[in-house]
Amino acid sequence: MKDATIALHHGFKSDPTTKAVAVPIYQNVAFEFDNAQHGADLFNLDVPGNIYTRIMNPTNDVLEQRLAALEGGIAGLAVSAGSAAIHYAIQALTRAGDNIVSTPQLYGGTYTLFAHLLPSFGVEVRFARDDSAEAIAELIDENTKLVYCESIGNPAGNIVDLQRFAEVTHARGVPLMVDNTVATPILCKPIQFGADIVVHSVTKYVGGHGNALGGVIVDAGTFPWADYPEKFPGLNTPEAAYHGVVYTEKFGPAAFIARARTVPLRNTGAALAPMNAFLLLQGLETLALRMERHTDNAIKVAQFLKAHEQVAWVSYAGLPDHPHHELALKYMKGKPSAILSFGLKGGYEAGVRFYDALQIFKRLVNIGDAKSLACHPASTTHRQMNAAEQAKAGVKPEMIRLSVGIEAIEDILEDLQQALRA
Ligand SMILES: *Cc1c(COP(=O)(O)O)cnc(C)c1O
Q1: How far apart are CA 285 and CA 398, in angstroms?
Q2: Pairing label, strands 311-315, 339-344
Q3: How far are the Cα atoms of 28, 37, 63, 70, 275 from residue 57, in angstroms, in the given order?
Q4: Edge-to-edge, what's the strand order for the sheet holding 144-150?
Q5: How far apart are CA 73 and CA 219, in angstroms?
Q6: For residue 358, what pLDDT band results from cuts at 50, 70 and 90?
Q7: Which ligand 1 atom lies nearest to the CA of residue 215?
Q8: How many other C-beta atoms lie within 10 A of the C-beta of residue 238?
Q9: 282, 302, 319 - which closes a domain
Q10: Domain holding 141: CATH number?
């Protein structure tokens, strides 16, 4: 099936008992065992089935299957937020003394996790000097357990050369983990270019309506974990945290996602609420349609701003003069999602006046909502930083970041026009 069809149908046929067509919300914690043997078989992971919603839930299962199918992976794991998905995916592969290698420009929450929290647990994070594959390759050593990047960076909108990343990481026996939140599998499927693990904040475009947090990990099933028994002991030796199971023996290509579920999620509990899984599935049903409109609107907004005399600069990889335009053509067919940033000639003061005058664009810090959203980092998310720190973080005083929604383009442009006049 094609993406638009998968998003509507994959992983669920009408409910067998009630014939309900919408995915039911299994607002339920524990599931009954037929008898002691059935319970034992479930706990041994010998038969499929449900035990407890912290580990699995039938509503969440549909979201997991659907996103895995869209990404071209073999299995998924849904959790309570994108941040938890990133943390659990890394926790499933690392322990104190290990390192991971990352691109330098990342979503703010991920940067903080990498720069401060993971090191406090003994996992070193090596930030490359830039987002080239060469800079990544230089930092990989025998203790490197994964390489991390965002297919489209949030908020910078930079695009990573996924195929080259996969070449340099695989040459060193290291898996590639890609945050595909901003692109979504509709615009880019990192697994096709060699990614081994894809993580998502489904809070953003997948849910698409700004009403539920969620995260999903997708396992490509491609990385040969069993070939590296010493590098990945958690997957190749008996797991003390789960009945002594050896994940590569029991789950084969799905070893990684099985460990992510039964060790980090089972033991720390950032489980996705079934109600939120339902809302996210509702959003996912129209993802393909929305991304078409999001990207059509984004390029029109970029062109409009670029041609406007009050605008100093526009950064959007869909524009031919952007340094990553070639990468946008290769990985996203020239449609690098709908996040763009720009600056007004009047600097900070003009930026604030423009921002305050917006009427359709919502002033907030989120992306990927069907509604158009705007953020002025210098006065909000990055206001505690001084000018030098802001510059290092890539934030200019006049910079406005837009997440272009799916409203009628005439209304979007009119709102921008009247705010520019203000
Ligand atoms: C928002 C976001 C996250 C974090 O997701 P939450 O669902 O807010 O926890 C991670 N990565 C990217 C690229 C994001 O935009």
Answers
A1: 37
A2: antiparallel
A3: 8, 21, 10, 20, 11
A4: 75-79, 215-219, 197-201, 176-179, 144-150, 99-102, 124-127
A5: 5
A6: very high
A7: 7
A8: 12
A9: 282
A10: 3.40.640.10
How many CB atoms neighbour CB 406 within 10 A?
21
Is the distance from the beta carbon of residue 315 to the nearest atom of ligand 1 less than 6 Å?
Answer: no
Same domain, 339 and 246: no
pLDDT of residue 226: 98
Q: How many residues does the chain have?
A: 422
Contact indicator for 360, 342 with CB cutoff of 8 Å = no
Mean pLDDT of the chain, nearest integer: 96
- Please tell me the predicted confidence (pLDDT) of residue 30: 98
User: Which residues make Cβ contacts (< 8 Å) with residue 148, sequence separation at least 6?
Assistant: 90, 100, 101, 102, 103, 114, 177, 178, 179
Residue reference for tokens 């599998």: 185
Q: What is the pLDDT of residue 154?
A: 87
Residues 359 and 215 in one domain: no
Cα diameter, the chain: 74
Residue 186 CB neighbour total at 10 angstroms: 23
Cβ atoms 262, 45 nearer than 8 A: yes
Query: Is the CB of residue 369 below 6 angstroms from any atom belonging to ligand 1?
Result: no
Task: Write down the pLDDT at residue 377.
Answer: 86
> CB-based contacts of 106: which residues, under 8 Å, 6+ apart?
114, 150, 153, 179
- The best mutation among 63, 83, 184 to test binding of ligand 1, ranked by most ligand atoms within 8 Å of the C-beta, falls on 83
Q: What is the pLDDT of residue 155?
A: 84
> Which tokens go with 64?
């997991």
Beta-carbon contacts of residue 74 (< 8 Å; ≥ 6 apart): 68, 219, 220, 221, 253, 254, 257
Q: What's the confidence (pLDDT) of residue 200?
A: 98
CA of 107 relative to ligand 1 center, distance in Å: 7
Q: How many domains does the chain have?
A: 2
Q: Are strands 99-102 and 399-403 parallel, antiparallel or unpaired?
A: unpaired
Q: Which of 253, 282, 311 is the last residue of a domain?
A: 282
Q: Nearest-5° angle of CA 136, CA 142, CA 146?
A: 50
State in Å: Cα 63 to ligand 1 middle: 17
User: Average of pLDDT values for 374-385?
Assistant: 83
Q: How far apart are the first and last CA of the chain?
A: 49
Looking at the predicted structure, is the pLDDT value of residue 392 above 90? no
Looking at the structure, do residues 388 and 256 belong to the same domain, yes or no? no
pLDDT for position 95? 97
